[in-house]
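Protein of interest.
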Amino acid sequence: MGGVAVTPKYLIYATIEVDGVIEKSDVIGAIFGQTEGLLGDKLDLRELQKAGRIGRVQVNIESKGGKSKGTMEIPSSLDKVETALIAAAIESVDKVGPCDARIKVTRIEDVREEKRKKIVERAKELLLKWRSEGAPESKELLEEVLKAVREAQLTFYGPDRLPAGPDIDSSDTIIVVEGRADVINLLRHDYRNVIAMEGAVVPQTIIDLTKEKTVIAFVDGDRGGELVLKELLQLADIDFIARAPPGREVEELTGKEIAKCLRDKVPVDQAHLVLEKPHVPKEPTKKLELPSHVIDEAKELLGTLEALLFDGDWNLLQKVPVRDLAETLQSLDGVKYVVYDGVATQRLVDIAERKGVSLLVCARVGDIAKKPESLEIATLNEVLG
């Protein structure tokens, strides 16, 4: 049978035994004829092949002593469930011409997974060759390659084109995070059923998905994460809540920390437990004197989750969302003062020190193990009195 060329996701492998002497064309005719209408028009083999969803049926058959035996391969670009249905339908064929027949599906192979394995093995070989001097252990190389492969699996899901892992459709449970960087970090640690909101407003794609799936909302351990979580709880059907440790962001967590956060998730009816303010180190009480125009702008910041970046003369260089602050700081030169409605995390403090920032004014001070001497940290409450 002809049809559009198929780029298969899966290969159905089957064996066939027939009580009679038959040819390849007889087997193919029997498969298409006896499955016609069996699963409805949507899964009709002829229509699927015309549309390029099912590829050319490959049959190898040998006849001996009045009986025929052989194998079949059927490529499919359908999803897992539909491919399994097609495989089961093929097994229902019990006649080839006038002869009794028995078809048995032996396995269904994920073609992409096999390709990924070959890519990983080849990448290991290339890295070993590339790093012939002082090459790390093979296990370390494999983990490095696997992390790159997982990160490369980032996709864009739904009409809103939200950053996501490749298993959103096939998983019964999904993890909803705040941003693209969170998705990439979870992919690095082999969580493939993750999708990002990409903003403070809950996209319709997320709302629709939460009606069909078991949903874990996994947010940062700061005020921004709390606000995102409140928004999600109002608009979407959330089942469980997980939060990063106080002052930490999902994008910076290790695999062990991610696993612990997800293990410690709580049912949505216990949302009050994760929305309580975590204990944080005592904020500094030293009174700071800021220019009057900066104080006015700081008052307007409260509740906006935005950041203001100033030069050494308190001239405003840029205004950005807090979620983009770290990335902006790394790429922008000349920033001396930062005033923002967010949490001072260790990561942000380290970036600020590297970029020569001398003052961070934040909504709250998170868990900071190492505070640079060159950087002063204050809170908006302190500045505004």
